[in-house]
Amino acid sequence: MELKPKLAQSIVDHMMTQIPYNINIMNKKGYIIASGNKSRINTLHVGAVDAIKQRKTLPMDQQYGNHGQPGVNMPLKFKNEIIGVVGITGVQYPLGLTLEIIKVSVLGGILYCKLFNY
Description:
Layout: H1 5-16, E1 23-26, E2 32-35, H2 46-54, E3 58-60, E4 71-78, E5 81-89, H3 97-115
Antiparallel strand pairs: 1-2, 1-5, 3-4, 4-5
Helix pairs in contact: 1-3
């Protein structure tokens, strides 16, 4: 499954109305395809690359210029394949259930739109 930027951006836009943090969605190569901060789209996110390689949620404690901000990056899995990463800027890890709810919400939106050919 390939994440589509238009779909990812619509999910980010909706989520940003509900939570006070920037959200990024990265593709399976770690490039930002959707963001509350539009200037970051199409840039490589080093935290996402690490989360993909390690196949797990990872905190990002420091800033990497345009390549990553402090926050948390969570791999998005579909049928045990990582299809991308959702990153939340500025939150401290662990927030446990709250982060999992956000991740599941993003995945749910992706799957819903895929089912209805959005």
